[in-house]
Amino acid sequence: MSTATSLLKQHLQQRQMLGKTHVSLRPGTMEKLSGLGRPPAARAVPEPEPLRPVVGAPARILRDAPQPETKKAELLEVAGETLEEKLAALRVMAETWEPALSMGSLRKTMVFAVGSPLASLMFVGEAPGAEEEKLGEPFVGPAGQKLTAIIKAMGLDRRKVYISNICKFRPAMDNQGSGNRKPDAAEMKACLPFVLTEIDLVKPLVIVALGATAAEGLGIPGTVGGLRGRFHATSGIPTMVTYHPSYLLREEQTGDGIRAKRAVWEDMLMVMEKLGLPISEKQRGYFQAK
Ligand code: URA
Fold first, then answer.
1. Closest approach atom of ligand 1 to CA 132
2. What is the Cα–Cα distance from 133 to 6, expressed in whole angstroms?
3. How far is residue 30 from each of residues 13, 70, 272, measured CA to CA in Å?
4. What is the CATH number of domain 71-284?
5. In a structure prediction context, what are the per-residue pLDDT tens digits for the chain, which is 290 residues long?
6. Using CA atoms, how far apart are residues 281 and 270, in angstroms rounded to an integer?
7. Residue 9 CA to ligand 1 centre (angstroms)
8. Ligand 1: distance of its center to the CA of 126 in Å?
9. What residue spans define the domains of the chain?
10. For a pocket test of ligand 1, which of 107, 122, 131, 132 has the largest count of ligand atoms closer than 8 A to its C-beta?
11. Which pTM was predicted?
């Protein structure tokens, strides 16, 4: 992909995330454009403004960096012409995914993902909980509200990012009630092809793994304390590991809520810088202990 094409795509993705344009690129367009020199579609949209100056923003466009491909064997083949059709086909495939359902340790309701297929930013959590299972959407319970607040603090809109889980089914427990548990390694492995295929289709510029379980599922083992604050890689895509929003909720109740929020926020500032998003002085100062 040429630098100009790459810049145009990043520009459109940034504006879309900020809710400032309805122009979106059809799946496959970038691939077509990259072989054509000056993209014809550029006539239909304004010339890209220079990227906003952001302290610490990458000098080069991320997509220009060589990125190891996810092994084809780890990806699922999906029918469909457009990105939306392919994601819809993947969702249907997940509903009856035998490797996960035959384990007997996961509940039967599949909860897929939410957000924009054109998102530059993708969040990956653990597994749906009671609320998510009821509403069929990831991160809609208390932890979800916390995540939505983080996204808003970044100047973004929940509908313009892509939110998914490593495990697509709520892990079952004895006397479940409203109780939730983390998915284990085997449960995550059974669902992993879905999240890897979602990453391959959406092609986010940055991934955020929420919590050590999600990070482990993506192949980044360790504690959040040891992993956060720098970028790792998933299928070659820069991946930030940060605390799960439930940890923030727990720390607000029983620990040092401000310290935990600041840690997550510093990780999100790094993500914003990586994406070349604007960051105000006010945003830089959020959650600093008085
Ligand atoms: N926690 C997660 O990790 N994912 C959800 O969808 C909800 C809570």
1. 6
2. 38
3. 12, 20, 23
4. 3.40.470.10
5. 445 445 555 555 555 565 554 444 444 444 443 332 223 333 333 333 333 223 333 333 344 444 455 666 689 999 999 999 999 999 999 999 999 999 999 999 999 999 999 999 999 999 999 999 999 999 999 999 999 999 999 999 999 999 999 999 999 999 999 999 999 999 999 999 999 999 999 999 999 999 999 999 999 999 999 999 999 999 999 999 999 999 999 999 998 999 999 999 999 999 999 999 999 999 999 999 87
6. 14
7. 30
8. 5
9. 1-68, 71-284
10. 132
11. 0.80
